[in-house]
Amino acid sequence: MDLRSGHAFWPIQNGLLRVYPPLAREERCEVAVVGGGITGALVAYHLVQAGLETVVLDRRDVGMGSTAASTAVLQYEIDTHLTDLVGRVGEEHAVRAYRLCLEAVDKLAALVGTLDDPCSLQRRPSLYLASSPRHVAALRAEAEARRRIGIAVEFLGRGELAERYGVRAPGALRSQTAAEADAYRLTHRLLEAAEARGLRVYDRTEVTGWSYPGAGVRLATDRGYGVSARAMVFASGYETQAYLRQRLAVLRNTYAFVSEPLEPGALWPERCLVWETARPYLYVRTTPDHRVIVGGADDPYRTLPLRERRIPRKERRLLRRFGELFPGVALEPAFAWAGTFGETKDGLAYIGESPEVPRAYFALGYGGNGITYSLVAAEILRDLLLGRDNPDRHVFRFDR
C-alpha cells in the first residue's frame, strides 16, 4: 500500500539520510521489529537500550512510509475529549491515557536531547480552537475535566485570543505541553543510536509470512532469507491491518502543505501548535526555517488515484481555512502532499498482544497523536518482552 502521495516536505528537505542493506543472509535475534518508521525506530531503540538483541525490517527505505508524510505535531491531547473518553473506556483508563501522552511529550524531548542531532524538536504551547460558538461550552467543560486530573490548561476567550495571538476564533484552550519535530530525521537518528549498541537494520526487505519452528518465530522475506527470533513486533502502522481479521481502524486520508519561508516577525507569538474542535480538524505548526505547515481536510480512503487527484483542491481548502483563522498571516504554498492514516473507535492506540498472532506484539499508534503513542508503546512492549508486567497495557488492549 502506498501510504502517501504528492511532495512530502521532510524527504525533500533532508534527502536520503541513510541507506541500509537488504537482508542477504539468515538472521537470528531476540526480537524482530517489522517497520522502520518512527514507531519501529522508537521501539527498537528502547529494546536495544534494555539489552535485547533486535533486528528491524522494512519493505521501503527507512522512514519513507507514513513517517515521511507526518507533520510531527507532538501533543498529549487525544482526538477524543477527556470528557467523552471517560464515557467510552471508563475514568481510570481515560485519565491514564491522557497522563501517559502528557508524559510522552516530555520523554520524547528528553530522548532527543541525548542524540547528536536535535531533529528540529522545539517545545511549543498548543491552542485548541473552538471552530464554532456552539463548541465553547464543551471546551470549558474539557478544561475543567483536565484541571481536575492535574493537567494545566487555560481557557482564552475570543478577545484574548485575538489580542495575544492574532487568531480569529470564539475561544480556545491553551496548553503548555506540546512540541514539533522532524519525524523523518528523528527516525534515522534513533536507528543510528541503536545501531551503535548492536541493532541491525535491513530495508527494502518485505516480510512475506512467518512460521513457528520450536519455541520461536521465523519471519520469511521476499529476499529469500529469514529472521528467527523469540518474538516479533509489528510497528508497520496502517499496513498492519492486512495481518489481522479484527478491524482496528478506519482508513482515512489527511492532506497537508508547507509554505514558503516567512519573515520571523510575520508568525504568531510563541509559534503555538494549533488545531480545532471541528471534525475533521485543521492543524498548524511552524518549522525552524519559518515555514508554516497546515494539515487536515481528512476524508475516507478510497483509492490511491483519487487521493492524488484531490491534493490541489485540498490545498486550496486548507489555505482558505488558515486565512480565516489567521487573517494577518499570508501564506504561499510550496509543497503539498497526502497520507493515509487509521482512526480508531475511541481515539486510542492498540498496543500489546492479539490472540490472532502468537508470539507477536503490536505497536499501532493510530490517531492524531501517533508519535506520542509510539513512545508509550515502546515502553510497554519493552517491559512485556523483558517479562515485566506493565499495567498500562490494559488501557490499549485489543479486546476493549
From TrEMBL:
Keywords: Oxidoreductase. One of its GO terms (cellular component) is cytoplasm. Residues 31-384 form the FAD dependent oxidoreductase domain. The lineage of its organism: Bacteria, Thermotogati, Deinococcota, Deinococci, Thermales. It holds the Pfam family DAO. GO terms for molecular function: oxidoreductase activity. Its EC number is 1.4.3.-. This is Gamma-glutamylputrescine oxidoreductase.
